[in-house]
Amino acid sequence: MLPGSIQISGETLSSAEIRDICESLRENSVRLLSLRGCQLSDRDFGRICRGVAESHSLAQLNLNLGIVSNINRVKQLAEALKTNRSVQSLFLHGSPLTDAGLALLNPALSIHPSLVALDLGDCMLGDEGINLICGLLPPDGAKSGLKELTLSANPGVTAKGWGRLAIAVAHSSQVRVLNLDYNPLGDQVAGMLAVAVASSRTLEVLDLEGTGLTNHSAQTLLDMVENYPTALRTLILAENSISPELQQQISDLLSEDPSSQMVLVTSGLGENLLAETEM
Asked: Cα separation of 186 and 173, whole Å?
């Protein structure tokens, strides 16, 4: 039987439900496990983590919206990921992780052989957390490095932290999708990101929605798109103070490549689509 998916959202999970999930994990019958926003006891979270450790089929683990709610759960998840070898996508969006929690999780992430997509949006990260993430980007031996990275809504990161990330993306990363929406980046950081995009051979999607950009950074992005061939296909600039004329110029240049698109109109706030889609 092909592995299937277990997707539960916003429910309080009973011990019986936890038992069934753990059995499915141990039997390698689950490829996608999503428990976003669910309520479960610390004991049951530990049981789930042991199931994740034993699973050889699990490719996507979605614990968005506060499931990893304390430092003990971070430690349990880290232990599970040290043993697990199959998880390709890990979503922790909306977890009170902080830099201290990421420091506990980082050793497991850095040695995981399959992890290519990581969502740490709205995880209360700062510059120290970004420093750790930079170390996850480059390929290392059999590891491919991260290909999809979401860091939306982490306002504690300063321009110094974002600058370091831009350098890491430019230098040695394989990142294809970078979501930085709803961070107060401003024009200075956008300029550094434009350099990173121009340097990267892999970056295809850049989400800068609601990041405090103005015509100044839009002009820099326009120059980049106009003068330097890049892998970039999708640039999201909604919810910024950018003139319609500049938006149209960038859009026209991207549209010369049929696979490119620029998203200028917001469709409302929502969870990262990547976090809800099986790879």
From this structure: 23
Q: Are 231 and 254 in contact (CB under 8 A)?
A: no
| Residue 252: both structure tokens together | 């026209």
Q: How many CA atoms lie within 13 A of 13 on its CB side?
A: 28
Instruction: Record the tokens describing residue 164, joined without a space.
Output: 């370091």
Beta-strand pair 177-179/89-91: unpaired
pLDDT of residue 2: 60
- Cα gap 248→241, rounded to integer Å: 14
Under the banding of pLDDT at 50, 70 and 90, the label for residue 269 is: very low
Q: Which of 92, 59, 56 is nearest to 77 (CA)?
A: 92
Q: How far apart are the first and last CA of the chain?
A: 19
pLDDT tens digits, 180-193: 999 999 999 999 99
Residue of 129, 187, 139 whose CA lies nearest to 161: 129
Backbone angles phi and psi of 4, in degrees to 5: -110, -155
Q: Quickly state the pLDDT bin for 265 (edges 50, 70, 90).
A: very low
In terms of Cα–Cα distance, which of 165, 161, 112, 162 is closest to 140? 112
Report yes or no: 105 and 97 within 8 Å, Cβ to Cβ. Answer: yes
* Gap between the Cα atoms of 270 and 56, Å rounded: 31
* DSSP assignment string, 157-172: --HHHHHHHHHHHHHH
Predicted TM-score of the model (pTM): 0.90
Q: What is the DSSP letter of 147?
A: S
Question: Are 259 and 233 a contacting pair, CB within 8 Å?
Answer: yes
- Strand-pair category, 177-179 with 205-207: parallel
Distance CA 82, CA 19 (A): 22
